[in-house]
Amino acid sequence: MQPIQAQIESVRQQITACANAAKRDPASIKLLAVSKTQPAERLQAAYEAGQRAFGENYLQEALDKINALSNLDIEWHFIGPVQSNKTRDISENFDWVHTLDRLKIAQRLNDQRPAGTPPLNVCIQVNIDQEASKSGCLPDELEALALNVADKPNLQLRGLMAIPSPNQQGNCAFSRMRALLEQLQKHPKLSAMDTLSMGMSGDMAQAIAQGATIVRIGTAIFGARD
């Protein structure tokens, strides 16, 4: 396996190529390194290669790494399912949450955000293919949830996130996500939404072509997990 620095450089080159193909500014696309199951020293190696945003799925594992790497200027993103009994630790320790999917969780994250800290950046997870096995807000419930979240003073509603079905054809799910965001942006209270968190190592090009602003990349940076 290539050193992490080389892997990150390769992914950044791919992002640039995909952005150019889509006639987009590569700087408009953030690389989120998905670092679940990776030890802190590998995150530090990625940090030394210039990576600043890291996505974690498992809370306790993430808290251990946040503590171990507290001397580094890392932007921490929570990208796993948010359970009610974990909202306090998430709200206190993360900069972003990508997986907000119901009002109860929004209320708890808002109420438990420490005083004096910036609002927590949140994306609403959309179950874009309406799969029974997946978390996420259904598309027809999205606007009502977004308007409620936008009213929370300690949350900053940034946009939408999705994990399309592996069976999705071409750009279809990503295109629908883009259309959902554009529809929400027409509402005065939601016009500042600017984020589409979608695309992983295997489908990054299609996601960028459809407007992804954050791509969540794990395998292409850290290699396949055991």
UniProtKB/TrEMBL annotation:
Keywords, comma-separated and alphabetical: Pyridoxal phosphate
N6-(pyridoxal phosphate)lysine modification, residue list: 36
Entry-linked CDD domains: PLPDE_III_Yggs_like
Cofactor: pyridoxal 5'-phosphate
GO terms for MF: pyridoxal phosphate binding
PANTHER family: PROLINE SYNTHETASE CO-TRANSCRIBED BACTERIAL HOMOLOG PROTEIN, PYRIDOXAL PHOSPHATE HOMEOSTASIS PROTEIN
Name of the protein: Pyridoxal phosphate homeostasis protein
Originating species: Saccharophagus degradans (strain 2-40 / ATCC 43961 / DSM 17024)
